[in-house]
């Protein structure tokens, strides 16, 4: 079984009828790159940069960040590395940032909201990422985007940093793609609008499910309401994929759902272009997709969207898989 999976390490992720997708890995830092490569990851779909900021007494310097981003980019040797800018707040505390205690931290001051409000902190990170982009294939991604103004503000700050670098003759990738996480329902609903502002989307289902279901992802008493296969979630994913494709942009997913073997056939059928997950899940998902027909997956997705509940979707997939 393990050997069968290992044989797929350098194989493309392509369906029986020739539809290809990309399988990438999620990492928290350079130390996680090996695991993604050993498991045949075709890129890094989510580099959670906040891990560089955690468990220390002060923010990492531009140089420290640059070294970490550069190391990942170089070790991925031309394969794409999506670096997500700082996503603090919510469940991730960073003592030296002195963020206020809030009664609804997941609905509060976090991620891009903090970054746009503390531009010096943000620009340091943007400089480090831009500088590293010269050494590999880096893409930049903003978390927790809820409206078009946040994208424009973030891009404005990026532009300012780019022109500083140009003035200082510091090289960076002028073509670096800029994307956003779609993890707030409002953004999923206007995905066709947001697609015109960016090069790609990555769907963050961990948060998208929590916000859509009004269900705290950390609260053990309501896990039964945290429903990845709720038809509302599937319909939102469809809106995001269609919104992106309508404008010729690619769309990935980097939440846990992307590595969930029950969800994968539906997500494939909905037209997702990239799946990013923990390294350990990649080969199983590749094996599954290589046994599927895209045409049948599309038919499954159409049916799934019409179901009345998570339970009905699970039964549908089980029945579909056994045929
Ligand atoms: C997500 O929300 O799905 C996601 C990938 O980001 P995080 O889990 O870091 O919030
Ligand atoms: Mg998230």
Automatic annotation (TrEMBL):
<keyword id="KW-0418">Kinase</keyword>
<comment type="similarity">
    <text>Belongs to the PEP-utilizing enzyme family.</text>
</comment>
<dbReference type="GO" id="GO:0046872">
    <property type="term" value="F:metal ion binding"/>
</dbReference>
<protein>
    <recommendedName>
        <fullName>Phosphoenolpyruvate-protein phosphotransferase</fullName>
        <ecNumber>2.7.3.9</ecNumber>
    </recommendedName>
</protein>
<comment type="function">
    <text>General (non sugar-specific) component of the phosphoenolpyruvate-dependent sugar phosphotransferase system (sugar PTS). This major carbohydrate active-transport system catalyzes the phosphorylation of incoming sugar substrates concomitantly with their translocation across the cell membrane. Enzyme I transfers the phosphoryl group from phosphoenolpyruvate (PEP) to the phosphoryl carrier protein (HPr).</text>
</comment>
<keyword id="KW-0598">Phosphotransferase system</keyword>
<dbReference type="GO" id="GO:0009401">
    <property type="term" value="P:phosphoenolpyruvate-dependent sugar phosphotransferase system"/>
</dbReference>
<feature type="binding site">
    <location>
        <begin position="206"/>
        <end position="207"/>
    </location>
    <ligand>
        <name>phosphoenolpyruvate</name>
    </ligand>
</feature>
<dbReference type="GO" id="GO:0016301">
    <property type="term" value="F:kinase activity"/>
</dbReference>
<feature type="active site" description="Proton donor">
    <location>
        <position position="254"/>
    </location>
</feature>
<feature type="binding site">
    <location>
        <position position="48"/>
    </location>
    <ligand>
        <name>phosphoenolpyruvate</name>
    </ligand>
</feature>
<keyword id="KW-0460">Magnesium</keyword>
<feature type="binding site">
    <location>
        <position position="183"/>
    </location>
    <ligand>
        <name>Mg(2+)</name>
    </ligand>
</feature>
<feature type="binding site">
    <location>
        <position position="207"/>
    </location>
    <ligand>
        <name>Mg(2+)</name>
    </ligand>
</feature>
<dbReference type="GO" id="GO:0005737">
    <property type="term" value="C:cytoplasm"/>
</dbReference>
<keyword id="KW-0479">Metal-binding</keyword>
<keyword id="KW-0813">Transport</keyword>
<keyword id="KW-0808">Transferase</keyword>
<keyword id="KW-0963">Cytoplasm</keyword>
<feature type="binding site">
    <location>
        <position position="84"/>
    </location>
    <ligand>
        <name>phosphoenolpyruvate</name>
    </ligand>
</feature>
<dbReference type="GO" id="GO:0008965">
    <property type="term" value="F:phosphoenolpyruvate-protein phosphotransferase activity"/>
</dbReference>
<feature type="binding site">
    <location>
        <position position="217"/>
    </location>
    <ligand>
        <name>phosphoenolpyruvate</name>
    </ligand>
</feature>
<feature type="domain" description="PEP-utilising enzyme C-terminal">
    <location>
        <begin position="3"/>
        <end position="292"/>
    </location>
</feature>
<keyword id="KW-0762">Sugar transport</keyword>
